[in-house]
Amino acid sequence: MTVISSTKDVGALTLTFVAEFAAPVDRVWQVWADPRKLERWWGPPTWPATFDRYDFKPGGAVRYHMTGPDGTKARGWWAITDIDEPSRLEFDDGFAGDDGEPVDPEDVTHAVVTLEAAGPGTRMTTVSTFRSAEQLERMAEMGMEEGMRLAMGQIDAILAD
């Protein structure tokens, strides 16, 4: 199993995922750095992602959409705030409208992805920090925890290519 734990901490306003992969850190880094690889796993299997814009550098903008089984599109955006290749990525994340731009620039979560060697493989820790307990609960009710588990579960197949 790829995801070994997920922890919702309402007091700290965080949702943390820990996953391990049987690949070195630099290969796991590529599932974040390469938008063609990223779109193979970002989003649950029934909601594949397409990255329309991917400016992978600090200050860079990312725009994407996920397409549901009935063709419904859910759009999102990232603002990359920091990159320390190949071990750390930070970005702000939010919902976007049909134009790909933020619906509410204040409705943001901040994600920190850390990759570290774990034996012959890699441990990936992803911490999403929310602005309020209400935002965290709303995202949990939308299925964020299960969606991320399903999404991260697709990474092993990408690393096997």
Automatic annotation (TrEMBL):
Family annotation (Gene3D superfamilies): 3.30.530.20
Activator of Hsp90 ATPase homologue 1/2-like C-terminal domain: residues covered: 23-159
SUPFAM superfamilies, sorted: Bet v1-like (SSF55961)
UniProt cross-references to InterPro entries, sorted A to Z: ASHA1/2-like_C (IPR013538), START-like_dom_sf (IPR023393)
Domain of life, per lineage: Bacteria
Annotated Pfam families: AHSA1 (PF08327)
Family per similarity comment: Belongs to the AHA1 family.
Name recorded for this polypeptide: Activator of HSP90 ATPase
Organism: Actinoplanes lobatus
